[in-house]
Amino acid sequence: xxxxxxxxxxxxxxxxxxxxxxxxxxxxxxxxxxxxxxxxxxxxxxxxxxxxxxxxxxxxxxxxxxxxxxxxxxxxxxxxxxxxxxxxxxxxxxxxxxxxxxxxxxxxxxxxxxxxxxxxxxxxxxxxxxxxxxxxxxxxxxxxxxxxxxxxxxxxxxxxxxxxxxxxxxxxxxxxxxxxxxxxxxxxxxxxxxxxxxxxxxxxxxxxxxxxxxxxxxxxxxxxxxxxxxxxxxxxxxxxxxxxxxxxxxxxxxxxxxxxxxxxx
Length: 265
Fold this sequence. Notes:
- The protein is of the alpha+beta class.
- The protein has two domains: 7-150, Fructose-1,6-Bisphosphatase, Chain A, domain 1; 159-264, D-Maltodextrin-Binding Protein, domain 2 (3-Layer(aba) Sandwich), CATH 3.40.190.
- It contains eight helices and 14 strands.
- It has helices at 7-33, 52-68, 100-105, 168-172, 178-184, 194-203, 215-227, 253-264; strands at 39-41, 49-51, 73-76, 90-98, 111-118, 121-129, 134-139, 143-146, 149-150, 163-166, 187-189, 208-213, 231-234, 246-251.
- Strands 3-4-5-6-7-8-9 form a seven-stranded mixed beta sheet, with helices on both faces. It has a five-stranded mixed beta sheet with strand order 11-10-12-14-13, sandwiched between helices.
- Strand 1 (39-41) and strand 2 (49-51) form a beta hairpin.
- Helix 1 runs antiparallel to helix 2 (52-68) and helix 6 (194-203) packs parallel to helix 7.
- The longest helix is centred in the N-terminal third of the chain and has 27 residues, at 7-33.
- The chain is globular.
């Protein structure tokens, strides 16, 4: 287990993982440019793609993390790794390519994401916007950075002044409260990648994100968003179980309060 008792030790882990992710992002971008990517489908769903790079990136990240901690426990998107059964101690989350559909079809708006939690609480998160070469990293104790630049705390905007990001699939299906949130906002967006959606929140170009997220979709973004003062909660306001999929609102405090009122009305 890593010693994370001081800010200096946490920063050292951040620096090391950041270097590895930057290298992996360059390799991923190069292989995509060479069009040497093999694509298959999960469970026969034509919209649920997986590539050979998803699997190889995950193996590479796990191997690197095990260099730091041979006993590291993981929650990963792709199959093949023993899954952590509890959030006790330290748990690593790995999403080797987030937004695989975007990656395959458009070569834009996809990310590599990693996070480290200790006793259920976020310590560090990394989101690499691969096409744009931007790495967002840090956490509640270290501050949050875009590459080497510290990011300011969130501006606590109301819904009518906000840009919100919502799940397109659930918006089209009429799931509550996706439509209500989109209609109440100044504008809404659908991006098809949790990682890229989180980057919009981190730089302040959006102020809320609502979707049903798997643990690997949420973990890094939660660490970074909470580091800037966003609230990250289930729709009913309860705490999040990081081992389960959750319908999560990541938003300013004011928007959270407005959504609670919407659900009661």
